[in-house]
């Protein structure tokens, strides 16, 4: 049976040799089939190519795993028709559904949902949360797409109407316990990675798992299917437990972090900074000295520290052609191996808990401004002479977990700030942190800036326009600013105009 409407079928496949032939045979009524292989290692592609001899309008593509949502959107991009029918490689379109589609008047503003029969060892299970099961499968790609979820992807419904069809799919869900357990482990891991930084506790994991079993086995009639109902309900419960347990474990793993230290011909201060890094309670994975053109004395100092430094120490240098802070920062960030970036100036002596404090509050799409304690000239001289910052403790330099969390939770700035004002006070690049991927998404620091001033504020503005937020961590992430004369402000007015232009045009990328 051939459909009169041109519809492209999109299938993701990986190691589906047991089901792919029957799946493809059920789809011969469609205009074309787009098959996206995710590095199959069994006979899947052999079976697919044999089918291609009978159905010439089958196109085969391949991709590594980038998440189910992105993979499905990639498959859709290869389709020549606007109407898309999405099906999994372990599903079969029933003939009655094909006939229903033939008589359907398709409306681009509709998404069509199909009922799905979920089979365990060949038996249709109408319990355990597996029934009724309507899945969104037929849609117009000019109106919607899949979200970017790694797992449990779904179509973006928005203002579209969902229309339920009478006939649908047969789903070979699981053949045995081993497959059920393997998929549960795979999907719970992907879910935890996808939801990283959402809160979770082991208690919540137990509660989610326990409730899932009670609901699926008792309230959703799993007990009606004998041992199969028990196995499915129990594995569903394990899946719920492991999702939140893995999320808890993942959230308590430390991020890899690169500490970037900017410097220019100031070995006396840089030495104190490097000594404070050596004394940290938790070390970064690497330290990158972002050197804006210093002479040999700085290079010799770094070489000296490299001999016994407790973590990898890199010297990122470019020629001295004036104040090019943004450019050398970008070079250091591009060289960084870690997923999280902390930047300090080469005149900032760090509190022992500095790295731990930043990591405690680190989140995607978030710019963190750490705490700065300014030392006077005599205090700085004391540090240079071998003194300790502990001698200069004050209320501002006191670590306080309760206050820092309270301020962090209750105070944030987003892009709507610029609807009323054009300048955020207190942004200082001498103590800041963010995810490297968030920095790369906006092109890093704006290299149009020459001379001191506004490069940090402009970076934060673009960060916010890209959907991020600014949060401050007071009474944590503390660094002590060694005294020095102020930098020349002769370029401040020109730099301020660059900053205002970013605000006016709501720029995200400076390039």
UniProtKB/TrEMBL annotation:
| EC number per UniProt | 2.4.-.-
Q: Which GO terms describe its molecular function?
A: glycosyltransferase activity
User: Which residues are in the Glycosyltransferase 2-like domain?
Assistant: 8-109, 258-376
Q: Which InterPro entries match?
A: Galactosyl_T_C, Glyco_trans_2-like, Nucleotide-diphossugar_trans
The protein's enzyme class = transferase
Q: Which SUPFAM superfamilies match?
A: Nucleotide-diphospho-sugar transferases (SSF53448)
- Name the chain's protein: Glycosyltransferase
- Identify the stretch annotated as signal peptide in this record: none
Q: Which residues form the Galactosyltransferase C-terminal domain?
A: 413-485
User: Family per UniProt?
Assistant: Belongs to the glycosyltransferase 2 family. WaaE/KdtX subfamily.
The scientific name of the source species is Campylobacter vicugnae
* Top-level taxon of the source organism: Bacteria
Q: Lineage of the native species? A: Bacteria, Pseudomonadati, Campylobacterota, Epsilonproteobacteria, Campylobacterales
Coiled-coil features, chain-numbered ranges: none
PANTHER family xrefs = GLYCOSYLTRANSFERASE (PTHR43630:SF2), POLY-BETA-1,6-N-ACETYL-D-GLUCOSAMINE SYNTHASE (PTHR43630)
Keywords attached to this Swiss-Prot or TrEMBL record, sorted alphabetically, are:
Glycosyltransferase, Transferase
């Amino acid at each position: 049976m051939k459909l009169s409407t041109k519809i492209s079928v999109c299938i993701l496949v990986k190691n589906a040799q047991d089901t792919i032939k029957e799946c493809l045979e059920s789809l011969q009524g469609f205009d074309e089939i787009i098959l996206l292989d995710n590095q199959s290692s069994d006979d899947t592609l052999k079976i697919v190519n044999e089918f291609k001899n009978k159905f010439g309008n089958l196109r085969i593509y391949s991709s590594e795993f980038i998440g189910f949502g992105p993979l499905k959107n990639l498959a859709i991009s290869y389709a020549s028709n606007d109407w898309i029918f999405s099906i999994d490689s372990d599903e079969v379109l029933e003939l009655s559904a094909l006939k229903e589609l033939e008589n359907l008047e398709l409306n681009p503003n509709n998404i069509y949902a199909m009922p799905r029969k979920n089979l365990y060892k060949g038996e249709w299970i109408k319990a355990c949360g597996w029934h009724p099961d309507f899945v969104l499968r037929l849609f117009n790609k000019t109106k919607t797409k899949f979200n970017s979820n790694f797992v449990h992807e779904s179509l973006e419904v928005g203002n579209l109407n969902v229309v339920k069809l009478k006939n649908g799919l047969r789903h070979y869900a699981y053949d045995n316990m081993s497959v059920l357990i393997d998929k549960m482990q795979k999907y719970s891991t992907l879910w935890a990675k996808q939801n990283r930084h959402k809160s979770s506790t082991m208690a919540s994991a137990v509660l989610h798992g326990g409730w899932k079993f009670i609901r699926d086995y008792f309230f959703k009639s799993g007990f009606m299917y004998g041992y199969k109902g028990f196995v499915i309900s129990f594995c569903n419960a394990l899946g719920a437990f492991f999702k939140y347990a893995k999320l808890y474990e993942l959230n308590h793993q430390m991020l890899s972090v690169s500490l970037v230290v900017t410097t220019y011909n100031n070995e006396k201060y840089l030495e104190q900074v490097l000594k404070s890094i050596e004394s940290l309670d938790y070390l970064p994975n690497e330290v990158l000295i972002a050197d804006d053109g210093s002479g040999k004395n700085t290079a010799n100092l770094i070489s000296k520290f490299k001999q016994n430094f407790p973590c990898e120490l890199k010297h990122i240098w470019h020629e001295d052609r004036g104040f090019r802070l943004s450019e050398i920062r970008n070079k250091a960030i591009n060289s960084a191996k870690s997923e999280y970036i902390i930047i300090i100036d080469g005149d900032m002596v760090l509190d022992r808990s500095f790295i731990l404090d930043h990591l405690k509050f680190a989140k995607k799409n978030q710019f963190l401004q750490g705490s700065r304690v300014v030392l006077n000239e005599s205090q700085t001289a004391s540090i240079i002479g071998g003194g300790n910052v502990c001698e200069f403790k004050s209320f501002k330099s006191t670590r306080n977990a309760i206050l820092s969390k309270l301020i962090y939770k209750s105070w944030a700035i987003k892009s709507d700030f610029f609807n009323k004002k054009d300048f955020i006070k207190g942004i200082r690049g001498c103590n800041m942190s963010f995810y490297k991927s968030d920095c790369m998404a906006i092109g890093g620091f704006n290299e149009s800036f020459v001379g001191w001033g506004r490069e940090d504020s402009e970076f934060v503005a673009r960060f916010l326009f890209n959907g991020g937020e600014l949060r401050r961590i007071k009474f944590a992430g503390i660094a002590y600013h060694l005294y020095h004369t102020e930098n020349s402000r002769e370029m401040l007015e020109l730099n301020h105009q660059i900053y205002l232009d970013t605000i006016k045009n709501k720029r995200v990328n400076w390039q």
